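Whether sequence alone determines local backbone shape is best considered at the level of individual chains. When preparing material for the folding task, we compiled for one chain both its residues and its backbone structure tokens. The sequence in question and its structure tokens are set out directly beneath this paragraph.
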Amino acid sequence: MQRMNRRDFLLRAGGLAGLGLVSCTDLVGPEESPGVLTPAARPLRVVVVGAGISGLAAAYELVQAGHDVTVLEARDRVGGRVLTLRTPFAPGQSAEAGAARIPPEHRLTLGYARHFELELDRLYPDDGLYLQVRSGDRAIVPASSFLSERPDYVKIRGGSDRLPDAFQSALGERVVLGSPVVDITAGTPVRTTSMDGRTRESDRVLVTVPVPLLSNIHFSPALSAAKSEAMGGGFRYQSATRVFVRFRTRFWEAEGLNGWGTTDWPEELWHPTWDTAGPEGVLFTYVRGARARELDGLDDPARVARVLSHWEPLLPGASSHFASGTSHSWQQDRWSRGAWAEPTPDQDRELGSALALPEGPIHFAGEHLSGARGWMNGALESGLRAAAEIHEG
């Protein structure tokens, strides 16, 4: 398999417009990964700020090319807004608090799954009945009707977090957890300081944190006016909250329901344990915008109680079969402060491209700088663009 030059890489990985996604069938082989870079003519020291999908992908490709990379992550885990929950659920059961579904056209995500030998499953069951509530009217529809309006989504078997975990395993000790960055001083070398006071020197820095978190870092010299405006609240993020309920039995099956559906709350109803064994099951509500912010005003037990109360007329018996519950709000997550970038057209036009521009030796990536905002594919796309930028710059 031939390696790509700079032009081919950018054309196939896609730029800010999200055009021309890399095809896993074209680029993935037993020894290579999507977007692979040519060997570095001059290896660089690179610090990547953030171990979300974009940061991990960029770090992985830069290491493969021969660069010396360190990834600094504020959390005690990798993945960013890829978060698979396994508690308080029955053994072997899990649910996604963040990224979950993969459309068939997201070839970068599918390519990396293949590269790391991760198995895929259908997201939605193709049998059973789906619940639909519109204008207060409860309807039960066959799978064929419900699925005809939706892409053939797939999911990563065992949890979406297996993808960032695979990157972390490949990167090894290059990933440093619990190290939020508080200062980046551009120079020769660049100096990056984490909250514990440790300073690391490098030739380049790649910042992949969400826009609202840029304000947590002191940049010297200061970032451009456009970036300052964006990180001060001028670049909108969507709100999204998920509330998860563990049930002792899958009582909804008595009506032929498979646990999935939509309502005009509005919400998506998910049954992530539909293809796992055991009598127990997990359902969760996925809400955005105003409904998410309403739930965010409640503490965790109150959120679960609110959802159960809402579900009872739609799924009779929900309260009596309840075992436990939990929730996750991305806008209340300290290291996210939003579910995904969703700027207004004016914000996108005035600030979107400027956010991606390097500032001296400091580069930027993240799902907010892609043509597929809110998706793992967008984060991968952006990470690969930034890796090429550093590698060839």
Remarks:
- The first helix runs from residue 6 to 13.
- The radius of gyration is 22 Å.
